[in-house]
Amino acid sequence: MCRSCGAIVGAGEPQCGVCGAPTSSQPVPTTSHPQPDRETIRFARAVLGRPYKFTIVFLVANLFVFLLMWESSDTSSTVLWTQFPEHVLVAYGAKLNYLINAPNYQWWRFIAPMFIHINLIHLLVNMYSLMMVGPFVEKLYGSAKFTVFWVVTGICGLVASYLTVRPQLAGNAFARFIFKSDDLPSAGASGALFGLVGVLFVFGIKFRHELPEGFKRAFGTGMLPIIFINLFIGFIGRGFIDNAAHLGGLLSGAVLALAVDYRRPGARPTITHMWRALQLLALSTVVLGFYKVMRNFNRPVASVPRVLVSANRLVFQNYINAMNPLQEKVSAVIHNNDVSNIAIVTDKAMQAPAPDPRAAELRQRLVIILSKLEEARSAGNPKLDQLVAEYEAWRKEYNAWLKSAAKS
């Protein structure tokens, strides 16, 4: 803790990153570090001396829920370092699309996950981040706005996670950075934490003309290294890190900060009735969400819908994987006069189960077109315009079916 301005200082840092004051008893040489900026110290003392009680409230709430989850896991030491059993995550409200969708409509899974964590490491990383970022946001904007920021950005992050469970779009490494191929339990305070980072990023840019130099360096563009490092970590761990939730929280926090003013140094500690009402609404939403969690805690969760979704997706993907070589062979016959291995490609395509009757009909028509092309090429007929037009018409119908089938 900086003795001059009260800001949090990392271990081993020779000076405060906000005001520039030395952190050790030995003076910092002026040739290496500038003297503390008096305006920055004045601003920091006026702002950073404010309380941050709701940061502590949310931290304690996360710890309390974690202990409850550990108790529900028979206080096993193994789950602390691996992850809680899936039935425990589901019981405490982890986000799962198939439970949010019909016929379950468990909307509280957009709220509860921001207070639950997968394992101990997940909890410690997020709570450390909360203690690093939360006090700054709460001191700058006040407890009412901070509460609204936390709840709204947390929900926005979970909505983004819900919308990006799209197996048909998770085709390559870059797509899987955002889109998910499986509907797995998602939980954690990361979306709300990224929301706070988005708030500080926009705060530093929006008010850069009135901020002293120390705060200009700490916020605004000074947040970019934190954002980029976390996005890089998210890309490396895209198989198990919910990057969509992070980006949803970050963007929603930035949007909120664009519209909301902060409490300037020397301003009276007053807050409008609107923000008090919004704070009460946010807290009531959290309480109502966990009330619904408790109401449904011991109710059995049917796993059949997820199994059906996975099975349907597998059939769909296998069908597409079988149809692609068949279309490539049609193009090879048309453009390269290549009639080799047609029987092998056709047999493989016919062996894949069709997702629906329309898919089976489209496949049969393509096989017939390919057969006609093979006969025409074998007979030395160079005029294939009619068959090419027939194939182009088929492809339009196939692409139309593909779009509707991918959505369902």
Helix and strand layout, with pairings?
Blueprint lengths: L37 H11 L4 H20 L4 H5 L4 H6 L5 H4 L19 H22 L1 H21 L26 H17 L6 H6 L5 H13 L6 H17 L13 H23 L8 H33 L5 H10 L5 H22 L6 H23 L1
Helix pairs in contact: 2-6, 6-7, 6-8, 7-8, 7-11, 7-12, 8-11, 13-14, 13-15, 14-15, 15-16
What does this structure look like?
It is built from 16 helices and no strands. It is mostly helical and 408 residues long. The chain has 3 domains: 1-44, no CATH class; 50-302, Rhomboid-like fold; 305-407. Helix 2 runs antiparallel to helix 6 and helix 15 (357-378) packs antiparallel against helix 16.
The CATH C-level name of the largest domain is Mainly Alpha
What share of the residues lie within helices?
55-70%
Tertiary shape: elongated
Label the structural class. mainly alpha
What's the alpha carbon Rg, rounded to whole Å?
A: 28 Å
Question: Strand percentage, roughly?
Answer: under 5%
Please tell me the overall pLDDT: 84
Main β sheet profile: none
Helix and strand string, N-terminal first? HHHHHHHHHHHHHHHH
Beta strands, count:
0
Q: How many domains is the backbone divided into?
A: 3
Through-space gap between termini:
54 Å
Query: In the CATH hierarchy, what is the superfamily of the largest domain?
Result: Rhomboid-like
Instruction: Give me the CATH fold name of the largest domain.
Output: Rhomboid-like fold
Q: Uncertain spans, ≥5 residues at pLDDT below 50?
A: none
DSSP helical segment count: 16
CATH architecture of the largest domain: Up-down Bundle
